[in-house]
Amino acid sequence: MPRPTARVLTLLELLQSGGTRTVAELAGRLGVEGRTVRRYVDQLIDLDVPVESVRGRYGGYRLAPGYRLPPLMLTDDEALAVLLGLVAGRRTGLTPAQRTANETASAKIRRVLPRNIARRLDTLLESLAFTEQPGASDAPDSGVLLAIADAVRHRRPVSIRYTDRDGRRSERTLHAYGIVAHAGRWYVTGKDAGIGEDRTFRLDRIADARALPGTFEAPVGPGPAQRVLSAFATAEYRHEVTLRIHGTVEQVRAHLPAGIASLEEHEPTAGQDRAAERWLRVELRAERLDWLPPVLASLDRPFVIERPDELRDLVTALADRLASRARRASPRKPLP
Q1: pLDDT 10s digits, 56-79
Q2: Structure-model confidence comparison of residues 91 and 12, the more confident one
Q3: What's the distance, CA 70 to chain centroid?
Q4: Is 213 strand, coil or helix?
Q5: Residue 266 needs a FRET pair 20 to 30 A away by CA distance; which of 71, 101, 238, 282 works?
Q6: Under 8 Å between Cβ of 11 and 40
């Protein structure tokens, strides 16, 4: 039979899985009587684990928020999931904490893993590859991230100190709609109360966030993620590009996602399938145009360039180079 200490730790693990557990349920899982469950709960309370007693027909026990983190019990699968999340977060730049905190948290979990699980984890990490280099951007300050998240939830204005990409510093009052993770960075989107317009801010460029009195109404329309993508697609760049592409929305979006281009969908005519191919208007802004001709070629769909003329010239030049290379005869002898 398991020792009482082992049963107490098992009880803690059950309570940490969330929700309220009845005495009968806990007794059945532990293989003891109800009064023994109550004695184990008292032992957890003596260890400063915040266990609450819930009265009523569906009452029982649950963990309450405490002043400090209680001993954390994880199954092997849960520990593996946490470690993979820490590794992926560090590699993609989306870990909302300092690198040192990420590494020390990983080390603490790895230290208590059973050897067979640790070996399996090492095997997995050795065979795991990422398509992008580890995130080089600064992670947002945890205090800033949590303060803005609280402002989003309670719809409270928040004062931020922000440094833009040109190094200019300013203090703004923001009505934050939501926090969005995109392409290895964290963003907050909301209304800049000073100018009365929607704006998107990088969280790692916010030095301080402080809640202000009052509330604001939640906006209608697109959600925070769509607002951030739309902001990227309509940002001011050197070139404004307008295209018409014949195809489905899915075909176009596979090469020109929402974070790059805005897509105007025309209502299909009567009897026409909404998913059928048709002419779609695409608009985007870009600092350079040299990346667009290969993208349009990879689309393999009919397209018309409305503007700028420079893009039309680049596409023609790419087509001429491809045609010239395709007409070349292969060498008679293989190269050494």
Answers
A1: 777 789 888 765 666 667 777 788
A2: 12
A3: 28
A4: coil
A5: 238
A6: yes
Radius of gyration of the chain (CA): 28
CA distance 161 to 158: 10
Q: How far apart are the first and last CA of the chain?
A: 73
Query: What is the C-alpha to C-alpha distance for residues 185 and 96, in angstroms, rounded to an integer?
Result: 10
C-alpha count within 13 angstroms, C-beta hemisphere, residue 164 = 8
Locus of tokens 């080390």: 107
User: What H or E segment, with its residue span, contains residue 180?
Assistant: strand 169-182
Q: List all residues 6 or more positions away from 225 whose beta carbon is below 8 Å from its beta carbon.
A: 178, 180, 182
Phi, psi of 140 (to 5 degrees): -65, 150
Q: How far is CA 36 from the centre of its chain?
A: 44
How many CB atoms within 10 Å of residue 8? 19
Distance of alpha carbon 70 from alpha carbon 73, whole angstroms: 9
Residue 239, amino acid: H
Q: Give dist(CA 334, CA 325) in Å, integer.
A: 18
Single pTM value for the model: 0.52
Separation of alpha carbons 60 and 161, rounded Å: 46
- C-alpha span between 8 and 2 (Å, rounded): 10
Maximum mean pLDDT: which of 65-74, 207-216, 322-331: 207-216
**Phi, psi torsion values for 235, nearest 5 degrees:** -65, 155
CA–CA dist 107, 104 (Å, integer): 5
**Cα→Cα distances 48→9, 42, 297, Å:** 14, 10, 65
